[in-house]
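Format notes (please read before filing issues)

Several people have asked whether sequences and structure tokens are stored in separate files. They are not. Every record keeps both together, in the order shown below: the sequence lines, then the token lines. Line labels are part of the format and must not be stripped during preprocessing.
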Amino acid sequence: MLLHRTIASRLATSPPARFNTTNRVCYQCLNTLSRTSPEHRNFSSTFSKLQTLAAAPETWRKPQHYFLSNRFLSKRGRSSVVDIVPPVSALPPHRRRRKEKAEAAADNTAIPPDASSLLSTSSAAQKSALHRDALAYLSLAKPRLTALIVLTTMASYALFPVDPLLSSPAAPTLSALTLVYLTAGTALCCSSANALNMAYEPNFDRLMSRTRNRPLVRGLLSTSQAVGFAGLTGAAGIAALHLGVNPTVAALGALNIFIYAGVYTPMKRVSVANTWVGAIVGGIPPLMGWAAASGAVALDGTFMELLSHPGGWLLAALLFAWQFPHFNALSWPIREEYRNAGYQMAAWKYPALNARVALRYSLLFFPICVGLWYYGVTDVGFLVDSSVLNAWLVREAWKFYQKGGEGGRARSLFWASVWQLPLLLVLAMAHKAGLWRGVYEKFLGVGQEEEESWEEEEEEGEEVTKVQEEAQTVTHR
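Then the structure lines:
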């Protein structure tokens, strides 16, 4: 027993990584123990077991844990490393905090850096000044976010219900040229808003891991260059929307720049309500796409006429609701960085509210999708397909709500939101009301008889008109 205590005291004062043959005292004691105690295992077995324990320092709780071959400490002189690992609640407070920080750091790496940071890194590595400046200016636009906004605008434009009487090739209602102006103008307006956002926050961006590589933080561009880029792209975007689409869409684009750069950006340091303001910014692009499509059939082209159909507002509500599960999951792993940078986010101020809001707005997807079918934007098949995607998002939001983001739940909800929205918009366009009716009628021959009878009636009418004209000519003679 005295020998056991001597070895235990030696192990308690020696780091596990240094426990090898160079530590002559422990080596000799263990060698003596293996030769003089026939009831113990040989030295090689004991030494390998101690090396296994060295990889798990949290199991070194009591001296007897070092001597797994002692038959009085375990059944049949055997014990398992797993059996003696204490639960997390049994760890000392300092080790428990260290373990929680390590898990939070591991979860932190799952959220990828934004495209601006990646482009800034690539820009700094370029040897050509032209390439370096081009990538730096491109990073101001936040390409990933801009691409997502353009996608939602195009999807809303494509989902506008076209009257079958006006959808013939002779009288198309949706112009490809209008779509080009819409996408280009939306991308330019979004780039302007993002550039103004970066020009306002370089001192705060350098305090966060996701944004410290942005071009203004790294000195690739100056604040005046960012503001100049924002002014140029904003003016070009609004002009493209006004000249190529209609004034209502141009006004919505200008309003989005103002809300994002003038209201949402400074509000992030004032109140957690900034997330709701940012969600409004996300809901405006679908209204722009809807107003662009409805302008082709409008009589007066007023704001109320272009946005009178509920479909545009339902698509805007879809994007508004999506912001919360996406951003609340994104902000959770870096909540301490938001706190240190002075941003007022619910992830660190009100963690329970943060998880509850993400779940609440995830559930809102179900009635919104039902509304799209009810008002004739999509067909009934969209209810089935969308329910599968929405159930997936709600499932991840529920786990996020239960665990509060721990254990990788924030990462799972984040990636679910990243994939759910594009897939949902693609399904909505695939299930557009009346899209498959022409294919169905052509495949089964339905409606061909009606078309033939209509053509015959038209021909008969033309013949009657010719006879009447000839009769009038003879009478005049």
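For reference, the curators noted about this record: The radius of gyration is 34 Å. Residues 2-86 form one domain.
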